[in-house]
């Protein structure tokens, strides 16, 4: 039976440590969130992030734009937050409506306030093995693996999904940790065969119970990033009940990767408060 990688327990521990660090510091971190529209799931995630800020002593403010906001209107909001010296971190709640240019908005966030780690400059640092701000979900996963002392050097890692939120940065972090990484996606041939090679499997494909028992190598460590609805229940990409019997370790959904993502966001915001906001991105 697999070890359950309890993200909630580890996140709670990390948040308590961070709270004490903030209390002992002279810093007063503040996070600003920007949400466009009233999508219920996005609204819930925003509330969770503001609640987490309160738990660790990070100030937070929210900017809410109408669902029909234009790219220019979102860029104006970002510019205001970039200029606000009291704001250390800026989070753009995703997904953005289709009429908003995602790439322009992400690139407009000052790299030193980019606590999501999506700015091209910060992604470049990550892929140069000199990370500063790392996207929160991959960073949270790496923290979880470290807390459970899961060896990565020399391991075969398979990452499913190539988004900038998870897949690409996850593959970079695992490579930087000396794993041998295969990044799979919708055009990958013989996907099941590739997945079976993984000593470490990270799934961010967004399909309920897509990963079945026969796809998983015996003794693999399985990280489930998926959040899907199935028969009225929240489930991951992995058939948890079946895969638990063959994996050596596995994250549950919920309670696995999600809490680690929020803890990583808080840690990034605290780090941003220590950087200052001079014009030079370094």
Please give a structural write-up.
The chain is of the alpha/beta class and 282 residues long. It is built from ten helices and eleven strands. The longest helix is centred in the N-terminal third of the chain and has 18 residues, at 7-24.
Quick structural overview:
The protein is α/β, with parallel strands linked by helices. The protein has helices at residues 7-24, 40-56, 71-83, 102-108, 120-127, 136-147, 167-176, 191-195, 240-243, 257-273; strands spanning 3-4, 30-36, 59-65, 89-92, 156-160, 180-184, 200-203, 221-224, 228-230, 233-235, 249-250.
List keywords for this structure.
Rossmann fold; 2 domains; 282 residues; globular; 10 helices; 11 strands; three-stranded parallel beta sheet; six-stranded parallel beta sheet; alpha/beta
> First CA to last CA: what distance?
47 Å
Radius of gyration: 19 Å
CATH structural fold name of the largest domain: Rossmann fold
User: How many strands, what sense, and barrel or not for the largest sheet?
Assistant: 6 strands, parallel
Shape, please?
globular
Task: Report the average pLDDT across residues.
Answer: 96
Measured by DSSP, the beta-strand proportion falls in 15-25%
Number of helices: 10
